[in-house]
Amino acid sequence: MPENPLADLNPALMRPEWPAAGALLHVGPYELWPAARRLRLHGKPVPLTPRALDVLVALVRHHPGMMSKNDLLAMVWPGLVVEENNLQVQVSLLRKLLGRNAIATVPGHGYRLALPVGVGEAAAAALPSTAPGALLGRAGDLAELGDVLRHHRLTSLLGAGGVGKSALARHAAAAAGPPVAWADMAECAGSGDVLEAVARGMGVDGGAVDTLARHAGSQPCVLVLDNVDRVARETAALAQELLARLPALRLLVTTQVRLHVPEEQVYRLMPLAIPPAGCALAEALDYGALALLQARAQGHDHRFTLTEATLPDAIALCRELDGLPLALELAAARIPALGVAGLLRRLGDRLPLLAKSTGTGPARQRSLHDTLEWSYDLLAPAAQALWCDTAALPTWFSLEELMARRGGDEAATLDLLGTLVDSALLRFDAGHAPGYTMAPSHRAFALRKRADIAHTSPPTT
Ligand SMILES: Nc1ncnc2c1ncn2[C@@H]1O[C@H](COP(=O)(O)OP(=O)(O)O)[C@@H](O)[C@H]1O
Ligand SMILES: [Mg+2]
Start and end of every OmpR/PhoB-type domain (predicted)? Predict the structure, then answer.
């Protein structure tokens, strides 16, 4: 994960060489064209020395993180040994022009840009809609989540592993307006790690809530806490403390496990939309699942294109993979060697097929099996056992059928069903009778787990 994941939205932010034309960034009220080395306020040029512009551009590239003095010196005066006061002079100049608080000092370390950074229209337009950072089929979610974020201080983006929570959060946060800080909690194991990850995300040295509170003050800020799954309880405690101490803070959490605090507003992210069978090609590509499959397959082979002839298999493939973006990406990688029809035929034992051969990316996303294993491990043993049992029920089942099959206490079973629905391992559709179902890939995984458990547990006599 790069220091500033929002920067992926605009390759110009992270690439050492700026694109030659067009890239426009909004830095607070200013407009910055890094390639053209131009800074304007309300259309008028801002007179900056070349070195001060370099410092500003370097801080923008690392926004919202901080840059150490040494890194700044190396970036702005490459290959030269320069006294630190040269840097201070440029920072003072920038503060004089952009405002006293535009650049925050991180004592003993370096500097951090304290103005919001957004991608201007010219730069956004330069990003093709199918580029890896582009968000497909989520226009509705982006707008709705934007509304939720405006009205609530703590939003949990809840959904299955690989459904696109982190991807949507990046775009929603970039569109949110105020400065954004980002903390990836995937590697956290306890409350100490959680605090440290948040401090790092906010560009603060040392993990103490007091320091965070002093640093953020009353500045508006959206803090994204990404991949909270395994530390939901610890994150919930810290989130409550931060919300109480920082009146202008908003939190966006991506997670498979709810925080269960009163401030929490849940946004349930569903898989990408799948075209109905028999849909015409042009119309079908408006559905997110098919658009993603086509875009990623083209990424693996520029010659790939869907035709009316391959469309039915491609739609069936999207349905088999339940519109799950991660599964679609893993499947697309197999298309050059199997074709859509061949892939669909071999999908019966889908789990071995849906794995990356390159071994890149976070371990939990290297295969669909790893993603499901991660989700399964988040469950308490009783929820694991219930989930495995539901996989052996008909495709759609009711609470009554489940109780008839398993027995036990209904209220306790409902609690467990609630957890399984929250983590999207089961789906409940109030408009369908019976109302519970599970995705085909989840069923395959759960049945295998069930068989493993039956195999390893001692026979009852
Ligand atoms: N709407 C989308 N458009 C394009 N790619 C997507 C979309 N949603 C998810 N992806 C891709 O699918 C993969 C899994 O998404 P991610 O956001 O990491 O899932 P989650 O955070 O829910 O586990 C990533 O490679 C991501 O870039
Ligand atoms: Mg994620």
Answer: 22-115
